Amino acid sequence: MGSVDLIASCIDSIRQIGDEIADSIVYIDAGTLEAFQFIGGFPLLLELGARAVCSLENASPLDAAADWQSSFSNPPRKIIVLTSRLLSDAHRYILRCLSNHGTVSHCTVLTAISEIGHSAYVDSPLGTDAFREYETLLIQDHDELLKKYEKLDRHKENIHKTTSDFTSDADDYSKWGSGVHYGSNSESSPTKRDFFDDDMGQVEARGRRLSVAARHFPMIFSPISSRVFVLPSEGIIADSSLSNHHEDSLGPGLPSISTGKPFDSDEVPPGVTLTAQFLYHLANKMDLKLDIFSLGDTSKVIGKLMMDMSSLYDVGRNKRSAGLLIVDRTVDLLTPCFHGDSFLDRMLSSLPRKERMSSNSAAKNPQTPSKHSQGTIKRSPLDIKVPFETIFSKEEPNIRSSVLSEGFMSFASGWNSVDVDSEVSWLPDYADKAHDHVLGCEFDTISGSFLSNCAGVHYLEALLDRGAKDGLVLIKKWLVEALQHGKLSSASKGRQGATSVSEIRSMVQMLSRDQLSLLKNRGVIQLALAAEMTLREPQSSRWDAFTSAERILSVTSAETTQSLAMNLKLKLESKDGERNKNSSEAAPSTDDFDDEWGTWDDSDNTDHQKEEAYGDMQLKLEVRDRVDQLFKKFHKLSSMRLRNQALGEGLAALSRFETDGYSRKCLLYKLLLALLSRYDVPGLEYHSSTVGRLFKSGLGRFGLGQSKPTFGDQAVLIVFVLGGINTLEVREVMTAISESSRPDVELILGGTTLLTPDDMFELMLGSSSFA
Q: Does 430 lie in the same domain as 287?
């Protein structure tokens, strides 16, 4: 069998629905948009025959005009919707799409959530037969909407008849123009003919019933590379709660602290159920037969749910064996909080992100409160923005303005296929608006995943295991290759030594002088500009300061408890001495303070002073409560090894894989080295399959027992961190594989989201926490 490739699996799944995509308008929501940017799905959709690819949340009647196939012969008859959310959440957007296109007679809805996932989600109104229920619901709502429009049309016709004697043929024609003109030869414009054809298509579509098909499409996730993936930040799985609000929970975006206590079936958070569904269907799509292991209380629940979904048919099929390890993020909270030496980690923390388009489902449905809808999770989208205006020199704005205006003129005249050279007198002059803030933001930034060049270099995958300096050197190498390919000379060509940001900048400007070169090398130029933003001040100094402070804390944490206690005692004594000294110096002022006791009742400022004193005291009490809550959380985390003895023994056993006391390694690095070396890790639980339980309980009595598999024995390994991963973990996991006795193993690393130190602050102490 071939190697495991996440991007190839996603592309194959899209090709399997090519019949539905052909000759249809494709609508994708924000989560699917993020996922398709990473796999390069938009050219594939157009290759499969899509008329247009549009945003579900920003649907418009003009979406039908953006026909990439350039047919314009027939109005759209079908639409296909891909959503990463529940059908009930996407329903209003789907209904809006149908109302925008009156000629559509067939609608296909593909959702990342299975029928079982819809029925298990507390806030979902759909049951076990969710897809059929939704098909009926959408048809009913669409029919009601059509009836409402027909009533409005009859009302308009009655008004039109009463005023027919006072209208002219020109006025009757103006309802089609509505103030929009298409140049000198607007009579022959193909766009206007489409308007008339579209109206006839609406009459034809209203005569027959809408057909709807809802199906499951599980391959909606964000593969950062062929072996690393996260869930879409605006999808329902990443947005759903991973823990309920109780004493052992930190926030809805993180699993609860592992205490060893079993979960009640009624207390399983919705995010846990949806994650189990996703992993199960992902393995099925990739033809993998899983041996499931878990580390952490919440991960054990996911393992049990996946085993309950398995069957004899799933296990007995001719599939490739793989090991799945699910790990709670709360078992190792320090790693994503560190500012490590990772180029992509710095980039994600420094660059601006796209604003979220969709809100949390709990906020959308206030009429259906749930005990699981406590707290909101605001995952940061991975859709980054890189400013492109900086690559142009200061002398070029006027040239850019004229080119921009000419581009608008050419685009507008292109609507008229009969006379391309016709003048467009109605077009306003956009040259003066080229530097307007709103228009400038659209043209000066580009968002989305980093592109790959024509040679097939995947930039993100190549930078995953790079530090800050190595990443900059690699970007310089790509820039030099692009300059050589374009036969452009560079002053830094062949120069040895450290790579500077100014050197990268000069090469980017050389590649951007020609429009053809700019378009051809847009991927590496975008990456170079992102590196410049990441490594310039004050972002670079801020990151280095955090790194130095964390390194000092790591070194001091290796000291004994007695030495730390002694240092704290000395510091407290010195502070106490300074406080006594200051109080003794301020002692003479107490006489004046005592003299004011008799005049307080007569003072006009007494009430104001009391209000200020009350406000100060209230603020102090609030700060003390917040600090008390913070230290309670720290106490719970530090006592996790004592409360969960098996997990504590396992974490202590993994300490043998620390290289030295000055460079801390993440939990996944040590865990993989231990499992690939076939060590037993206390606290790691194996979830037996249906066949395994049968052999163990039944046929095992006759000597046909099945031995317990080992995670490190599998040829394909999948590690999923419930709560999220960061790029430093990706780098160290790759290092662990290369240092192990099995460097040929195929490892897939996944997580709920891609975390940065700022994200961890929000999840533990900020707006996405229970604090």
A: no
Residues 399 and 509 in one domain: yes
Six token digits for residue 81: 């919707």
- For residue 415, pLDDT beyond 50: no
Domain-ending residue, one of 216, 246, 262: 216
Phi, psi of 445 (to 5 degrees): -125, 150
pLDDT at 492 over 70: no
Q: Single out the residue in 216, 243, 276 at which a domain terminates.
A: 216
CA distance 449 to 306: 32
Query: Is 362 among the domain residues?
Result: no
Same domain flag for 181 and 251: no
The pLDDT of residue 297 is above 70: yes
Q: What is the pLDDT of residue 13?
A: 92
pLDDT tens across 535-547, in order?
Answer: 888 888 888 888 8
User: What's the pLDDT score for residue 711?
Assistant: 82
- The answer to whether the bond into 538 is cis (omega within 30° of 0) is yes
Per-residue pLDDT reduced to its tens digit, 162-215 = 555 444 443 443 333 333 333 333 333 333 334 334 444 444 445 557 899 999
Structure tokens at 458: 């995947």
Give tens-digit pLDDT for 669-701.
Answer: 889 988 888 888 888 888 875 555 554 455 555
Of 261, 325, 240, 311, nearest to 713 by C-alpha is: 325
Verify that 247 and 209 share a domain, yes or no.
no
Range of the structural domain that residue 234 is part of: 222-354+373-381+647-764
Q: Residue 603: which residues within 8 A CB-CB, separation 6 or more?
A: 609
Segment 290-295 shows an average pLDDT of: 90
- Alpha helices for 292-436 (secondary structure H): 297-309, 312-316, 334-337, 343-350, 361-364, 397-413
How far, in Å, CA of 56 to CA of 495, rounded?
50
Q: Is residue 366 part of a domain?
A: no
Q: Does residue 45 register a pLDDT over 50?
A: yes
pLDDT band at 237 (very low <50, low <70, confident <90, very high): very high
Query: In what helix (H) or strand (E) does residue 483 lie, and over which residues does it extend?
Result: helix 468-485
Beta-strand pair 78-83/106-111:
parallel
Do 197 and 53 share a structural domain?
Answer: yes
Residues 6+ apart with CB under 8 A from 504: 472, 475, 476, 479, 528, 531, 532
CA 428, CA 412: separation in Å to the nearest integer?
11
Residue whose token pair is 């580009």: 446
Q: b or e along 21-35 (b: 16 or more beta carbons within 10 Å of the residue's beta carbon)?
A: bebbbbbbbbbbbbb
Residue 207 within any structural domain of the chain? yes
DSSP letter at 449 equals S
Residue 25, both tokens: 């308008």
How far is Cα 341 from Cα 559, in angstroms, rounded to an integer?
24
The whole-angstrom distance between residue 161's C-alpha and the CA centroid of its chain comes to: 54
Q: Letter for the amino acid at 489?
A: S
Q: Count other C-beta atoms under 10 Å from residue 3's C-beta.
A: 9
pTM over 0.90: no
Per the domain annotation, does 360 fall within a domain? no
> Rounded CA gap, 406 and 211, in Å?
44
